[in-house]
Amino acid sequence: MINDKKVLFSGMQATGNLTLGNYLGALQNWVKLADEYECFYSVVDMHSITVRQDPATLRKRARSLLILYIAAGLDPEKACIYFQSHVSAHAELAWILDCYTYMGEMNRMTQFKDKSAKHADNINVGLFAYPVLMAADILLYQTDLVPVGIDQMQHLEITRDIANRFNNIYGQTFTIPEAYIGKVGAKIMSLQDPTKKMSKSDENPNASIYLMDDPDTIRRKFKRAVTDSEGCIAYRDEQAGLKNLIDIYAACTGKTPDTIVSEFSGLGYGQLKEAVGEAVVDKLSPLQQRCAELEKDKSYIDGIIKNNAEKASYYAAKTLRKVQRKVGFPDRIR
Ligand code: TYM
């Protein structure tokens, strides 16, 4: 607990172009939960270098992502929005937790398997140990709740396992975090292959809606979205493309899938696609506008970056000191 509130932590990588999946699966829920919790939202730039990055691009994207958090409606005076690399305790705790995590556990991680297949020329130790850094991110703040999309569930489970293991050896040290998965939007699928997750690394640009896509591009991508030949509007697994469109519409408008099905019953797929496109444009246009405005306000953003790095460091250090003492590192002399 911090200030009598439970603690929420989440983060996003500043790699590639963020997609509608990132927004509906994570960011939108962060905003909904922000008042109820003491929140830490990190731009996890240390995770990004598990895959080769161009330094200038990473720096720019990391800053734009931090701005996006604010543009999405998070108040950086209340929520602690910061760069992971500015708080060295993340790396320090990750090292300690590495020593309490088994190779076999990491070998089972599906994201590691996927990413090492994709980057066969650079299967580095960081990529392998990535979930331990993620566990450190979460456990450093004594986090109660972690809002994420479904694809991060396996990492959340290993975080809980590591925390429980440590607590069992050394006594109560870490809060055991729970995942928060939104009712709709927790797994937005590709518009071109609805059996696959919408992903920023998809090679086909028509498969994903990028948060910075202009309105015409968004409308065009939805028009081309893959559906089926059944010809009737229903919300079911067998019509995966349609189900995804309904999920997106539901996550953008707050309507339930059932309401949407009755709203469009008897109408064609084209009309649904058009409505979804408009709903997404209505969501993303104001967001893009706020990002552009905030990008111009250098001193305001710099102030947020500095203050929140200090705030995050303060809370992170408390947990790190406790852990260091538990494992037997000598006390500091003051
Ligand atoms: P990342 O950067 O891949 O994704 C950020 C968030 O977006 C969600 N997401 C989706 N949700 C629904 N549908 C989709 N198609 C979709 N694609 C992505 C993800 O589930 C995630 O919530 N390892 C994490 C970052 C991280 C983190 C953490 C998250 C590092 N440390 C601590 C939470 C807590 C990642 O790579 O997310």
Explain this structure to me?
The chain has 334 residues and is mainly alpha-helical. It has two domains: 7-180 and 298-327, 3-Layer(aba) Sandwich (Rossmann fold); 215-292, Tyrosyl-Transfer RNA Synthetase, CATH 1.10.240. It is 54% helix and 7% strand. It is built from 13 helices and five strands. The chain has helices at 20-33, 45-48, 55-71, 89-98, 103-107, 110-118, 125-140, 153-170, 215-223, 240-253, 257-264, 269-296, 298-327, and strands at residues 7-12, 38-43, 80-83, 145-147, 178-180. A three-stranded parallel beta sheet has the order 1-2-3. Strands 4-5 form a two-stranded parallel sheet. α3 packs across α12, α7 (125-140) packs across α8 (153-170) and α9 runs antiparallel to α12 (269-296). The protein is globular, with a radius of gyration of 21 Å. It starts with 6 loop residues before the first strand and ends in a 7-residue tail after the last helix. The structure holds tryptophanyl-5'AMP. Residues 9-13, 21-22, 25-26, 44, 47, 134, 137-138, 146, 148-149, 151-152, 155, 186-188, 197-198 line the site of tryptophanyl-5'AMP.
